[in-house]
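pipeline: protein-struct stage 2 | run 1193 | Beta-lactamase family protein
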Amino acid sequence: MTHRTRRPLLTSARTRARTRAPRTDADGARARAVTGLATVAIFAVLLAGCSGAPTPAASTSGGSETSGTLRPAAPEGTLPDETQTALQQIVDQAMAEYAVPGAAVGVWIPGEGSWTSAFGLADIEGEVPVSLDMTWPLRSVTKSYTVTLILQLVDAGEISLDDTIDQYVDGITNGDSITIRQLADMSSGNADYTTTEGFGAAYSADESTIFTLDQLNGFLVDQPAQFAPGTQRIYTNANTNLLGAVVEQVTGQPFQAALDERILEPLGQNGTRYTLDATTWTEHPLGHVMLDGEQVVQNDNLSIYGPAGSMVSTLDDARVWAEALGSGLLLEPSTQAERQDGAPLDQGPPYDRYALGIGETKGWWGHNGEGLGFTAAVFHDPETGTNVAVFMNESNVVPKAHPADQTFRRIADLLADRNAE
């Protein structure tokens, strides 16, 4: 297998000025390839104790908790050698099957222990190995944070899931009938900005442009709907970015500040942040896409995703988020139950069903993400309290596959077989 780094998708001068400290690309869950004679561009469509699950803590919808007070502890000890060997084999096989250069994977089982491991290379050309303290793009896992903020505001009585988006953002087609709930569960029918001429032209004019949330949402104004609200479920970045605008309108804070105060600080997620300027994102892997048998390093313009996919995180923070998201740690129990009322997507990433900013696969709840060189999967098993996080620096696998999600599914199968013995 060969590689090259001089023809990146969504080309950026920053990917050419490489250092030994790896740097990389942007966030999304599914990417759409648009090939030109001189440049190849991908606009990501973020499709982004053993006896039982832990008891959810009190709601944090007010966002006033002391930093880190709600952070779940990792299970003590390590998993049995036999389990570790089986997990290692699953990751090795998935990386070989999908030509993944590097990965970071963690499995945390209450009452049994933990297994975390780094695999392969963060930077092929620089021969930089993946390490466990690197930060990875969350891609569409970011959506689960954004919708959690929305549900916290519902718990606080500041908004309703039945509010229409025109109460917060002007100019959206069908805005007087699209509800917050429909934006969260991907049934709004809203257009996606990644396919608009306005976004394409702005991005092509300067691929290093740092887009604001208002700009991303502005590309949606007066765009034709894909379908009538509530009649289909098609996954888009735009749905979640409109919810980001709701967060800003209701809290009176920039999205990043609301996220920090209401989620990241209470959970002590010091390695996680919402960032639009990739030049401030250091010590991370490079994202890759295989083109014509060669690994091509991807652009790192995080700002093209906004609240739909512009967050980065560490493996241990992903453990914390898997538990908080899957168990409803930050929400009222009734809100978490409502959150999990979902259905299969008509178009989108691989879930058995998708609900309010959360997906269900094989009985596990969480979120995955893909785009521009990276995939991620962060899931929680309510029955056992087990958490799994997978980060990989390869996306857009042909034939279509999601390496991190496939790896998670195989881990889930292994653990199910193990529990059945």
